[in-house]
TrEMBL record:
InterPro entries per record: Papain-like_cys_pep_sf (IPR038765), Peptidase_C92 (IPR024453)
Source species taxonomy: Bacteria, Pseudomonadati, Pseudomonadota, Alphaproteobacteria, Rhodobacterales
Highest taxon in the source lineage: Bacteria
Organism, as annotated: Roseicitreum antarcticum
One Pfam assignment: Peptidase_C92
Protein name in UniProt: Permuted papain-like amidase enzyme, YaeF/YiiX, C92 family
Length: 285
């Protein structure tokens, strides 16, 4: 197994995949393209995409590929200004939780298209987040395919840098709580509760407007936040990795100092993603 090296990817980069499964092959056949899925990188090791489970943030280190699988790495030819990139990332994060629309995804290859909804699919999400910041990757951000994005004249292709995943790492990933999946489940539970009172709710950002417009729904959302475990996810993370959050505990770890230092530097590498919060770890290192 292999994965894309997180140090090779920057915020705003677009990754494309061409999985060997039937769905991926069907998309590539229908669109006449090399790729079937698109995702945008939003932080050091984190990306956001739209799948059948909706829009979610995921960990690039857990995105595994078979040794013979292909992936494609693209970046804007002209680097955007920092505030523009921030808008792109903010919009992508704001869409977390939005539902997937298979029907509208299929219309991307049809000449007959109705007006678009707030729902997402992978290429629409990527195109929209850039379009929102004034960067038009494709002529129609609402209806485009992964291949349309791959062929955007505003993008340049980079060499994909892979690294092997050890058997020990695979065993570690398969055991215990997957914090990313736990967050997905909790977010979806809260959004489903919100949709029970307003079917137009798509993302967490929509909750604010709902509560202002209909304050009587506050208890529904509050109950969902508690019952889903959303408010307690941080406790599980702290319990599993207390050294990440408690000053002095890192000194007691048995790992080589360089490995710990590399971890700390990687954690604070992306200033936009809130690296200052973890600066104390670098001091301990």
């Amino acid at each position: 197994m292999k994965r894309i090296k997180i140090d090779s990817v920057m915020q705003g980069d677009i990754l494309f995949t061409a999985r060997p499964g039937k769905t991926s092959k069907g998309i590539r056949f229908t669109t006449g393209g090399l790729v079937s899925h698109a995702m945008i990188c939003v932080a050091n090791g984190s990306f956001i995409d739209s799948t059948r489970n909706g829009v979610q943030a995921r960990n690039l280190q857990r995105e595994l590929f078979e040794d013979d699988e292909q992936a494609f790495h693209f970046r804007l030819k002209i680097p955007p200004e920092r505030q523009i990139l921030a808008q792109v990332i903010d919009y992508a994060r704001a869409e977390i939780g939005a539902r997937y629309s298979l029907t509208e995804a299929a219309r991307s290859v049809s000449p007959f298209r109705s007006s678009s909804s707030k729902k997402q699919f992978c290429s629409r999400l990527v195109a929209r987040v850039f379009n929102q910041a004034g960067i038009e990757l494709v002529p129609n951000a609402n209806y485009c395919t992964p291949e349309d994005l791959r062929q955007s004249p505003l993008l340049k292709e980079l060499t994909v840098e892979f690294e092997s995943v050890t058997i020990e790492e695979l065993a570690l990933m398969s055991g215990g709580l997957n914090p990313v999946d736990a967050m997905h489940d909790a977010q979806n539970a809260v959004l489903e509760a919100a949709r029970s009172v307003d079917s137009k709710i798509e993302s967490f950002n929509d909750l604010y407007a709902l509560l202002v417009k209909r304050p009587e729904t506050d208890q529904v959302i509050a109950n969902a936040l508690v019952s889903s475990g959303y408010l307690d996810l941080w406790k599980k993370e702290v319990a599993r990795h207390p050294w990440r959050y408690t000053s002095g505990l890192m000194d007691k770890l048995s790992e080589p100092p360089k490995l710990l230092c590399d971890y700390c530097i990687g954690t604070i590498k992306e200033a936009y993603s809130g690296g200052v919060r973890f600066a104390i770890n670098l001091i301990q290192c």
